[in-house]
Amino acid sequence: MTTRRSRWLASAAALVAMTAFATACGSDDSASGSDDEEITLRVNLFGKFGYADLYKQYEDENPNITIVETAEGDLGAYNTQLQQRIAAGTGAGDIVAIEEGQAVNFLQAADQFVNLQDHGANDLKDQFLPWKFEGATTADGSTTIGLGTDVGGMAMCYRRDLFEEAGLPTDREQVAALWPTWDDYIATGEKYKAAMGDESAFMDSSTNTYNSILMQNAEYTYFDRDDTLVIDSNPAVKDAWDTAVAISDDGLTAKLKAFSPEWNAGFKNGDFATIACPAWMTGYIKDQSGEENAGNWDITTVPGGSGNWGGSWLAVPTQSEHQEEAIELIKFLTSADGQLAAFEAEGNLPSNPTLYDDPALQGATNEYFSDAPVGQIFVEGAAALEPVYLGAQNQPVRDAVENALRSVENGQRSSEEAWDTAVSDAEKAAQS
Amino acid sequence: MTLRDRLARLDIAGAPYLFIAPFFILFGIFGLFPLGYTLWVSLHDWSLLAGDQGFVGLANYSELLGDDYFWNSLLNTFAIFLIATIPQILMALGLAQVLNTSLRAITFWRMGVVLPIVTSVAAVGIIFSMIFARDFGLANWLLSLVGVDPIAWNQERLPSWIAIATMVDWRWTGYNALILLAALQAVPKELYESARLDGAGAVRQWWSITIPMLRPTLVFVVTVATIGGIQLFTEPLLFNPGANAITGGELRQFQTSTMYLVEEAFTGQRFGYASTIAWALFIVIVLVSLINSVIVRRIRSVD
Amino acid sequence: MTIRPDAPPSDPAATSTGRLIPIPHDPELPTPVKRRRRSLRSASPMTYLVLTFVVLISAGPLYYMVVMASRPNSDITSVPPPLTPGGELGTNADRVLNSPDVAFVQALINSFLVSAVATITVVTLSSLAGFAFAKLRFKGRNIFLLAVIGTMMVPVQLALVPLYMLMGWLGLAGSLWSAVLPFLVTGFGVFFMRQYIVTAIPDELIEAARVDGASTLRIFWQVIFPALRPAAAVLGLLTFMERWNDFMWPYLTLSPENPTVQVALQRLSSGYYTDQALVMAGTLLGTIPLVLVFVVFGRQIVSGIMEGGVKA
């Protein structure tokens, strides 16, 4: 190619690209200003909320409204993005989902969200579990930034086939009877280990069990209600820690880090026989275990009987230009009918206690999990729940404790060393 | 003085500024503002979501000096940087020499070595964490052939550094080879010919012609590798997928400084402190680059 | 023997005024490329062996992407991992292309536009500035150059929040402009071009043109720019690849309805659960255009590098 021709070509190509680019950028449609103007509501979610049919219904009833949902796959990425958009004051949707672990963070920026108490949220209190409503309300009770969608009622998922191999009962009633308490659960684990040896571990990891125990029997965990760090003085934390350490010292775990590729592979390969599972994890287990394990998994009650892990709220950022319409829509989506529709679509457990007697919920079963009565099991796990207060710096402290626990599990640290590290990390995080 | 002379003089004086203006104007808008803003934030107790909690002067900086995790992250950053960069530059030089020969299917070979930069980061992360997996990874399988016990790559410090350095080198060696190759091509052939006539052998030619002629490009490659190496983020993050990836292992054994920065900003919500880490890193990079240039000058005076 | 590397012997042809208007090659004539090749050392079988090994390692992950994209998700987590492609590629690709959450075709177009615009501006503006830094004398040259290198030293992770706020104030958050504006020029590009020009362009070339009374801009456009082809080709390729694969910034700034490929891929997984096979199929689909760019322009880029130096 000659220099002259190539230069001419390059210029032409540049011109074409620039023109195309300018055209692509210039297609913004602006809203007109009439009374029943066409409005597009943008909904930012993560994962599966099961709202598709609800949107259709709402759009039919409100012809001037169009709903555009974006659902993010990766929760970590979703949280980072939402934080940046709230911090910058632009770019967030008209409605955003706030996940359990982030609620306290966003409550610190409550002024960035519409206070739903100014829009009749107080009249809706009985529509939600009390702790669910409080979870999105500031400490002084004056501001509520979100309405509850689902809760993550706890249960225990287990492998029938491996239990049979180890000579343990497989029927879910009988399995539940094996472990009324965590000590019984450990004792069952010992039996399992004696039968199976190195072939398969009793549970996936100590962190998963640790969190289940901690969230079960505490009013608060690392921070008390005045947001003072109490990691070293709160017996609930130390108890959960000691139990988790005992479990890993006994060699009952497969030492698999949650959400790592090895952990994912473990579901399919039978690396572990039990895992504490909230409602939303049933889909995860099914996807990772594959069709060849259909009927191998089952669900029963968790030791201690209840617990919560996960769940979300819907909020309206003040940066939204359609606040009124967005508030109406979240009321619709979080109503009893809305929550029931979401459960039927995706299995997300409602946070509305009036639904817990509903036959549609009570009678729900899960085919993949040997037709386990998931509705009944998870409702039981959620209804008995007491609220757990999580401090503003809960996330970094939780990360520090989980890291410390894993270092014990991997044999990198002694329990004492790891605990001291966790406490000093927590103190560091609490200072900020 | 004629108008033409005056225009010529104006051209000589003004053109350089005209030529560098686009860069500086664009950088001023999209680079300088974030920098200045970050500096401002670093002087405050600033929560990411709750915003400015008050001016604290240099308190963040003095805290950083006593922060073990920051020093730990710097140690990891430099260790990985050294383990990765030295072999990378040598391999790239060798590869550029190999590519600078008369080959059949020359396009194929030259494009082949740059393939890693086409491969998306997400795929690379998944694949390398599989290669270095403890129980079913390729790396441990190869080691078992020569009688080495399986290594828990992401639980031990040195193995994790080596594994991450491998990821970095896989991605960037071919890229640097291409840059060096372009420079090799620019060395006038007459130099080699006259050297041959003077009876210089291949090694002698390489030392006295190739390396000096490549020096500007080598300076460039080393500088870019340094700047990139100290800002290493994606590879160590992908190396340990799953919960708490940002802490770089249970004992923070491979958490780099930019990972620590992101952890403080988004997990700890400490935007002010994270800005302080950014500026501290900036200063570190400047210092290292100065040391680099001093070393390069020394090499020059040795010749 | 003394060789002063900083003063390469001048090319006698370059001092004639005829150089200002390059004479096009007749394609029928043997090109300089072929002449050049003969002056290179010929390759030994050992060379081919080394290169084969390098290319295999380079292509390994790409191959593995195909393996994962063509299997059901549960295969990927098998122990040991599968090493041969399965038969699910069509199914997985179909799920990507018809996924309601992902405007994949739109994303491809957007990615192409963003990458192409950034590549054009980076190469042009970097050549301009790099030339000034390498060959022109002006007050403050070293300070300005240091500033350019300094711009590369700022850790990018934290510029994200302020940069995003800036886009908000400009009213551009969510538009394609916001994805491309911060990358219209890079310190890396300027530095890269400067280092190349210092080595590759003899001063005599510029002086001869000056004597002929050419303006600086004309010298740049007619003498320098054609000689920069190898470097421009490399820089262009690198810029295009980097923009195409960039994730963090587009993810933060673009609205989900108007994504780039990498942002669209992020949406493929759903729930707390990542369907690796689906993501890999999407990644593969997003990589194919890059490989095409590679194949189409690869030949040109390589011949650009081959023609290196000033004897274009």
TrEMBL record, chain B:
Gene3D superfamilies: MetI-like
InterPro entries according to UniProt: ABC_transporter_permease, MetI-like, MetI-like_sf
An annotated GO cellular component: plasma membrane
Membrane topology summary: Multi-pass membrane protein
Alphabetical GO biological process terms: transmembrane transport
Keyword Iron-sulfur: no
Keyword DNA damage belongs to the record: no
Transmembrane spans: 12-37, 74-96, 108-133, 213-233, 277-296
Domain annotation ABC transmembrane type-1: ranges: 74-292
Main location per the UniProt record: membrane
Pfam short name (any one): BPD_transp_1
UniProt name for this protein: Cellobiose transport system permease protein
Native source organism of the sequence: Mumia flava
From TrEMBL, chain C:
Protein keywords: Cell membrane, Membrane, Transmembrane, Transmembrane helix, Transport
Region (Disordered): 1-38
Positions with biased composition (Pro residues): 1-11
Cellular component per GO, a single term: plasma membrane
Signal peptide: none
Pfam families in UniProt: BPD_transp_1
Domain ABC transmembrane type-1: 108-297
Protein's cellular compartments: Cell membrane
Family note: Belongs to the binding-protein-dependent transport system permease family.
Name of protein: Cellobiose transport system permease protein
Origin species: Mumia flava
Taxon lineage: Bacteria, Bacillati, Actinomycetota, Actinomycetes, Propionibacteriales
